[in-house]
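A quick word before the example. In earlier lectures we treated sequence and structure as two separate objects. From today on, think of them as two lines of the same record. Here is Putative exodeoxyribonuclease written that way.
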Amino acid sequence: MSSLIVSTVNVNGIRAAVKQRSAQNLGLLPWLTETTADVVCLQETRADDAQLAAALAPALSDGWHLASAEPHVKGRSGVAVLSRHRIEATRLIESDEFGSHGRYLEADTAGLTVASVYIQTGEAGTPRQSEKERFMAVLAARMAKLACAGRDAVVCGDWNIAHTENDIKNWKGNVKKSGFLPAERQWLSELLGTGWADVVRELHPGRPGPYAWWSWRGRAFDNDAGWRIDYQLATPELAARAVAARVERAAAYALRWSDHAPVTVEYR
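And the structure line, produced from the sequence above:
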């Protein structure tokens, strides 16, 4: 595999991300024009395949290739992969419950497998959390198979889990909330223990952040009171090729086009 740059971002609704700050020539489409990324994973598109293709039409005309998994409920979830290279094959997650939910999509492109994933937000002690945990189990099983496939792979997206205290600014106030529950953090530790590498953390060891999600409310963004929940988990040989990782944080609150910022990794 030659040098490759992979980005991931939760767009918080594809149509909003395209229109947001459009008067200022900002938003997802200008970002796609300017980015150096070869592959971009999108989450929470909240659009069916036709709506997504229509929203991304200018980017597709510029040569981007698109694969997508639409949500099964209107206005929820939805994931996609954009690539400057031909997309050779795609796969959904194998699950009777989640296969059509638009939360996971694999694409073979540029000599590796890139997956876009969107784990549920969850809510501690409710059926929503139980659903999240069922999906986590299915995801771990799929990633185990992917790791054994003998092909470089990276699973990118919004995992809705802050792994350690360094991954959330206000960790003390969230120890009993979904996204920072002990069981969720242990699940992620066990997943990493099977050989998958948290590439951004390995390139930014022993320090808070870099955060990639901030609430729209209050001054969370201005105070960098964020969460690091957007990961790129790579197979060992691919992870060893990672030389740089960054969060493309907007220069100011008024310039944001999503509540997440793109997380970009360069592999050589």
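Notice the following. Residues 127-147 form the longest helix (21 residues). We will return to this example when we discuss secondary structure assignment.
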